[in-house]
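In the previous lecture we treated proteins in isolation. Real proteins rarely work alone, and many bind small molecules. This record shows how such a complex is specified: first the sequence, then the SMILES for calcium ion.
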Amino acid sequence: MSANNDIASAFEELDLDRDGQITQDEFHTAMTDRGEEITDDEISSIFADADTDKDGKISLSEFTDAWTRAEQA
Ligand SMILES: [Ca+2]
Ligand SMILES: [Ca+2]
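The predicted 3D structure, ligand included, written as tokens:
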């Protein structure tokens, strides 16, 4: 369960307005806030992989699935 808590807290850090969905804008802002350089292309490719229902936002369950896939890779 501790891994799930890690995922949930990582999700909360990215979900800046706490609406339960990470938008590309939030992702970009969160990354630049922590000093990471990320391009729109990189964000598009992350969202293309993680946003499985293609609504343009990443929900906690999509985030959890993407995280789990990344850990297994
Ligand atoms: Ca949000
Ligand atoms: Ca989605």
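Summary for your notes: The longest strand covers residues 21-23. The radius of gyration is 12 Å.
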